[in-house]
Specification:
With 425 residues, this protein is of the alpha/beta class. The protein is 52% helix and 11% strand. Strand 1 and strand 2 form a beta hairpin.
Length: 425
């Protein structure tokens, strides 16, 4: 075989080998591309179907398999605290709820459960001065057998309200649940990122609080002096961790605030929050359609969960719009500015947050009691709120109780109650 023939033969032998390699590479690339397209398509399908799955889970499991029984105040706990504005004692029962032990449900007693945050719990006022206690007394004085259970928890928000309803409603079987949405803070604290999968988000959060807290055999008491020392330590710790910008804002606070901050006669967490998020309230006057939409969706989903739980136990639900200082009280704007919050006169009378709460309640099929108008009618009365604290003073609790009593007395279920000797807890 001559050289030319041999070269031709070798070329023919090499050609298929190179073609096969290219073919294999091309086939592998096509398979990878196909797999990528398949995974992308599946991810798109899962993403698109996720909200429908979430809604189904919300309908199927209004009460999760692992209720957050540990999401509550410390049970059998008593604390005394003296602040610039007040001195108060608060106690919890074996359920971690403020007040006395709750008796078994009686058929002829209309039971109301109020779920909310510190505005329900009654930060700064003694038990007998909370609006829950006052509301019950108003019914009792009218000869109505109505009891009002204080289901408030310090530092909670709308997501926690839905979580706590999962075990409070089955345990207490209220005839009526009042979900008390704070006019400003609760809207800011409604997470935007939960609007797409709110029910799955709640189930995931519930898992963290699924293990019950041990109930002590005796009441744990924190004395006034112990609480003061704890407050001083917390204030000093927060002061050391302040950024330069927060330190500058702190230095601009008036001397009375700074003095009581370091004396332990102040809610140091409130000051720390004002310095970290000074625009907490002002941002609510700046309409943001994106955040408004997502907050409305999340809040509606939380209210719907509560309504479905109440439906399961033959109870009803109303949303209560709780008034918050700067939106309803002129003096509160100046006072809260002293605490470090950015304030604006545009806050007073602003109804944007009320519209969010009303829209969310409507989506959830729940009626609304709006307390803000009653407070705006008394907007020139500084005594409704504490001077250097972001909570209602005792006269504010009186106004809440009176306004709710008027709303509830017009309710057909309450009017139908037989009169007689009221239940006394």
């Amino acid at each position: 075989m001559n050289a030319a023939a041999m070269w031709s033969l070798m070329s023919l032998k090499r050609l298929p080998v190179g073609s096969n390699q290219k073919g294999r590479l091309r086939g592998r690339g096509l398979r990878i591309l196909g797999m990528a397209i398949y995974l992308t398509a599946m991810a798109g399908i899962v993403y698109g179907c996720a909200p429908a799955v979430d809604r189904f889970v919300g309908w199927l499991l209004p009460v999760s398999p692992w209720p957050p029984v540990a999401l509550n105040n410390l049970p059998l706990y008593e604390e005394t605290f003296q602040s610039y504005d007040f001195e108060w004692v608060h106690r919890t029962n074996s359920l971690g709820l403020r007040g006395n032990e709750i008796p078994p449900k009686q058929a002829d007693v209309f039971r109301i459960l109020a779920i909310g945050d510190s505005y329900v719990y009654g930060w700064g006022v003694n038990q007998e001065d909370t609006w829950c206690e006052r509301l019950e007394r108003l019914f009792r004085d009218a000869g109505r057998r109505v009891e009002v259970i204080n289901g408030g928890m310090l530092g909670n928000g709308p997501v926690e309200y839905a979580m706590r309803a999962e075990y409070l409603i089955p345990a207490l079987r209220p005839d009526l649940t009042l979900v008390c949405i704070l006019q400003g803070s609760d809207i800011v604290e409604t997470p935007v990122d939960m609007s797409r999968l709110p029910n799955l988000g709640v189930l995931a959060k519930n898992w963290k609080f699924r293990t019950p807290r041990p109930i002590p055999t005796t009441v744990n008491r924190m004395t006034r002096e112990t609480k003061r020392m704890y407050s001083i330590q917390f204030a000093e710790s927060e002061f050391r961790q302040m950024t330069d910008d927060q330190r500058r804002r702190f230095d601009r606070l008036d001397d009375v605030v700074k003095q009581h901050y370091f004396k332990g006669s102040f809610n140091a967490g409130m000051i720390a929050g004002a310095l970290k998020w000074p625009g907490w309230y002002v941002e609510l006057t700046q309409r943001d359609p994106h955040s408004t939409q997502h907050r409305t969706q999340t809040l509606a989903a939380m209210l719907l969960r509560i309504r479905r739980i109440a439906d399961r136990y033959a109870g009803r639900v109303f949303t209560v719009i709780m008034p918050e200082g700067p939106f309803v009280n002129r003096a509160a704007i100046a006072n809260w500015g002293r605490l470090g919050f950015d304030m604006s006169p545009l806050l007073y009378g602003n109804e944007e947050t009320e519209r969010i709460i009303r829209s969310s309640s409507e989506k959830a099929g729940i009626g609304v009691f709006d307390l803000a108008p009653a407070f705006r009618e008394n907007g020139d009365k500084p005594e409704l709120f504490f001077v250097l604290d972001t909570h209602m003073a005792p006269p504010g609790h009186v106004l809440v109780a009176q306004t709710l009593h008027m709303f509830l007395s017009a309710d057909a279920a309450v009017r139908a109650l037989p009169r007689g000797t009221p239940n006394v807890r």
